[in-house]
Specification:
The chain is an alpha+beta fold. It has a domain of 86 residues. The protein is rod-shaped.
């Protein structure tokens, strides 16, 4: 009976004694370990072990535990940010494909005007009409503008 009581008391004391453990570098660059918070000038402070048991007091300046609702809100915020980033990336890729397509088309059209072959267009009646020299120059100028716009 005494032995069992002794073990229970020993476990209770061990639980109460376990405290936070800190690791930091002091002013001379040496690594220090302690169960008390490091001094204000310490560098590379790490908290190695959290306090356990009901008697352990929270360290000054430590963040309180977040509730499940707060964790859920943070998770949803991160999820929304990822969705927005993916949508932005998809739009950028789509815009780049559109730009490349328009550049290729404008380049082909400009080459067609530069070759100097006879060019035609279709009027409102569906008849094919050969372009005059002035219409060809105007079309070439428009094609050059399109190349400048899309092929940057």
């Amino acid at each position: 009976m005494r032995r069992a009581l002794f073990l229970v008391v020993l476990l209770a004391v061990a639980t109460a004694v376990s405290a936070q453990t800190y690791k930091w570098k002091d002013a001379s660059g040496g690594t220090q370990y302690s169960d008390t918070p490091p001094p204000p000038g310490a560098k590379d402070v790490q908290q190695l072990r959290q306090a356990t048991g009901a008697t352990a007091a929270p360290a000054a300046g430590s963040a309180q535990q977040k509730t499940t609702a707060e964790k859920e809100a943070e998770f949803r915020k991160r999820l929304e940010s990822k969705k927005e980033a993916a949508a932005k990336q998809a739009k950028a890729e789509n815009d780049e494909q559109l730009r490349a397509r328009n550049c290729a088309q404008a380049t082909r059209q400009l080459k067609a005007y530069e070759i100097g072959t006879r060019m035609t267009r279709i009027n409102e009646k569906g008849e094919r009409i050969t372009l005059s020299d002035a219409e060809r120059e105007q079309g070439k100028a428009e094609a050059e503008k399109a190349v400048d716009t899309w092929c940057k």
